[in-house]
Structures are given as structure tokens and as C-alpha cells.
Amino acid sequence: MTGVNALKLVALDDEDLAVVSAHLQDAVLKVADITWLPREKRFAFVANRFAWEAQRTDSGERRRTGVCFTRVLKVQHSRIRCDEPEAVLNLLAVTFTAGESPSGVVTLVFSGGGAIRLEVECLEAEMRDLGPAWETPNRPVHQLQD
């Protein structure tokens, strides 16, 4: 299934990252699909993202997508079991909080209260679809609170 063209996005500021975050909302990944390369200052993961831009009504599409953050100084995890490589995480959002310019903190927010915090020299991220889309009958649903 290839309902839409593959995406390749770059984020160099918080507005760019908001676009990347919107495309990654409801991406699922395993803990084993996350890597931190401290000597290279790179943090990366591969996920199956829900292709919100596909505009289907009866079903949805997912795509295998790679995400890489560069110039990463430190990585911290909260409520994520790094010792369970097969654990599945549901990504809800990716945010940036500015520090002393151009540095800051990127936070990957997962369902269930999990988070990964990246201290970065500056914001440099790339998201790239790695292959064709496939159909899924499972469309993510979010309950709105009053």
C-alpha cells in the first residue's frame, strides 16, 4: 500500500519540531529500536508511524520511519524499562524546551507516563520514511477530556 508519498522532514527549531511531532503522534516502537551513540552525539529510533496525512476513513496506514537527533549531549529515561527490549512504546509527542540559546531539551512523551529527555547543543532532527505504507484496521483514538 502506498497511499501517500514518503516523508522526509528536518527540524531546526521548535516550529519545525511541532510538525515532526504531529507526524509521529501514535507511532509505536520497541525499546530495542532506540539507540544512543554518545561518542557521535546521536540519538535515533525506528518506529511504525501512523500516516495521519493518508486521509482514509475506513482504515489507516502505517509506515516504517527513522528519526535521528544530532548534537545530543545527554539522554535520560523516565518510566521506560530499558532492560525489556521487546516492550512496546506509544509515542504521543516530541517537544523542545529552549535553554541558553541555541541549546535546550527535547522530550519524547509516551503513553503511560514514559519519557525520554535529550539535552542538545542545538535542535537538529530528521524524520524519514523508510519504505512503503501498509494498511492497518487500527486507527488510533484519543478521548477528549472536558
Describe the protein's architecture and organization.
The chain is globular, with a radius of gyration of 15 Å. The chain has one helix spanning 14-24, and strands at residues 8-11, 27-30, 34-37, 42-50, 60-70, 72-78, 88-98, 104-110, 115-120, 125-129, 134-136. The protein is mainly β and 146 residues long. The chain has one domain (8-136). Strands 1, 3, 4, 5, 10 and 11 form a six-stranded antiparallel sheet that branches. The chain has one helix and eleven strands, in the order E-H-E-E-E-E-E-E-E-E-E-E. The longest helix is centred in the first third of the chain and has 11 residues, at 14-24. It comes from Alsobacter soli. InterPro entries: DUF2948. This is DUF2948 domain-containing protein.
The number of distinct structural domains comes to 1
Q: Helix coverage percent of residues?
A: under 10%
Report how far apart the termini are.
37 Å
H and E order:
EHEEEEEEEEEE
Low-pLDDT segments, ≥5 res:
none
Instruction: Please tell me how large the radius of gyration is.
Output: 15 Å
| Approximate shape | globular
Protein name: DUF2948 domain-containing protein
Pfam families: DUF2948 (PF11164)
Task: Provide tags for this entry.
single chain; 146 residues; mainly beta; five-stranded antiparallel sheet; 1 helix; globular
